[in-house]
Amino acid sequence: MKILVTGTAGFIGFHLVKKLMAGGHEIVGLDNINDYYDVNLKYGRLNESGIDKEKIVYNRLVESSSYNHYRFIKLALEDRKPLYDLFENEKFDKVINLAAQAGVRYSLENPHSYIESNIVGFLNILEACRHYSVQHLIYASSSSVYGLNEKMPFSTRYNVDHPISIYAATKKSNELMAHTYSYLFNLPTTGLRFFTVYGPWGRPDMALFLFTKAILNNEPINLFNKGDMLRDFTYVDDIVTGIDRIKDKTPEADPTWTGMDPDPSGSKAPYQIYNIGNNHPVKLLDFIEALETALEQKANKKLLPMQPGDVPSTFADVSGLVRDFDYKPDTDYREGIRRFIKWYKEFYKI
To answer: What is the pTM of this model?
Structure first.
């Protein structure tokens, strides 16, 4: 198949390209390479995929020197005309949209960037998929949509109408927008709620990256809610394996679905929502202990109160994945941390 993957200079998108290329697909990667975090890491990921930084020009496809069927284009989803031109010229079979402005805390300071990228950009993706006959749109949502929900584990059958960050609100909006296009235009869409993804080539603004850097530099690490947080840490390889399986099953309308007792995870339209999480929440202090073991160095812990926009716990009900794909993420967090530390030391030459 010919597949467009957006966000391929990003963490998950970079790993997904490698997975899809191993499956023999023709891939076009897209990213705007913004400076939300260190662009050198983004260019490092692209270089690892055979994309030469010096050849990258806005709105021009670049051939990979590592993969025969991988090309990359620097482009913003908000830039409607060149995005539509790309769809018209390439005639994609499927689209996997991972591009987004990420980060809960950053959304408190820069809400407009989330609306532009995550709402306007996603609308452009939906319109392009509609008008250029894309067979299946898979897109990244987030566990943050569960917001004030307290019933655990989080199920896609639960209502998610109480987000507590603009980032979460944009992801919830993506699900609503996708359902509308599935219903009105029969566009098959699948939303994936990711749970605390970590691993090699990860984002520098995320906990594991921040903690590792601080411990190695003998700096204190900030543990919000005094470290009493539970997170369903999900290793990146488990995420991309899930995406790879899901892309091959186009959602269909559920004839048993009823508006009298509506299940938010499905619809009478070709629309589906899945959680992808490790289904085994870990206390943040235990996660830190595993990191200390991997680094052979103790952390200086600074216990702080809860931050606005954060939730105390995440815990994924992945029964939908098991039911439809016989798949469940299972990488142990201690092993995942060891792999991350190995990459981190190699990349930063420590």
So the answer is: 0.95
